[in-house]
Amino acid sequence: MVSTSRPKGVTEPSTRERILNAAIALFAARGPEITLETVAAEAGVSRQTVYVHFGSRSGLVLALVQHLDTRGPLPELIERVVDAPNALAALDAVARLHAEYSPVAYPVARVFTTSRQLDPALQVAWGDRMAARRGLYGEVVERLAGEGRLAEPWTMETATEVVFALTSWQLWEQLTLDGGWSKQQYRSRLGVMLRRTLVR
User: Fold this and answer.
1) Which residues contact 164 (CB under 8 A, 6 or more apart)?
2) 145-163 as b/e, with b when 16 or more CB fall inside 10 Å?
3) Among the four given CATH numbers 3.40.30.10, 2.60.40.10, 3.40.50.2000, 1.10.10.60, the one describing domain 15-55
4) Full-model pTM
5) Residues of CATH 1.10.10.60 domain(s) within the chain?
6) Distance between CA 180 and CA 80 in Å, rounded?
7) Which of 15, 76, 105, 179 gets the most CB atoms within 10 Å of its CB?
8) Which fold has domain 66-198?
9) Rounded Cα gap, residues 139 and 136, in angstroms
10) Each residue of 53-94: pLDDT tens digit?
């Protein structure tokens, strides 16, 4: 007889985690138009259970973002940018961040981009995330300028917007999903684009 018990030290995921994991898998497989009923069925719970934990589809999406940000690779990747020894290394760390995190977050990012115009809560959350991205890039550009390496004619503001554009979800999608770039190709080529565009 095959044992169905879990190995020692491995705990059963909570109901909330099961719902979040089911939602991430569904968004990745089927796209952003997933209902709470579909998520509930995938997680093996009732729709009411999903509603109790998240309140609405928007609440579920916001929880997904937090789940990915705290359980995924993002904190360590951001730390690599912040702790880089110099501005050039920080630019390379930005390229690594997007190469590693974009495939993980893309399914949920698609939900944001398709739903935020119709949902004030998602619109606010999206704005907060974009402001945080700009803030991180602004710190890197400030380091470039401080080290005398920011190329002309860029100002700190315009250079930050260039980094924002080159690391967008849309460009990642076009280059990797449509263009066939591997993760390593995207990372190395993005690093080259950032350096050649911004560095003196």
Assistant:
1) 130, 133, 134, 137
2) beeebbeeebeeeebbbbb
3) 1.10.10.60
4) 0.79
5) 15-55
6) 27
7) 105
8) Tetracycline Repressor; domain 2 (1.10.357)
9) 5
10) 988 888 888 888 788 777 778 899 999 999 999 999 999 999
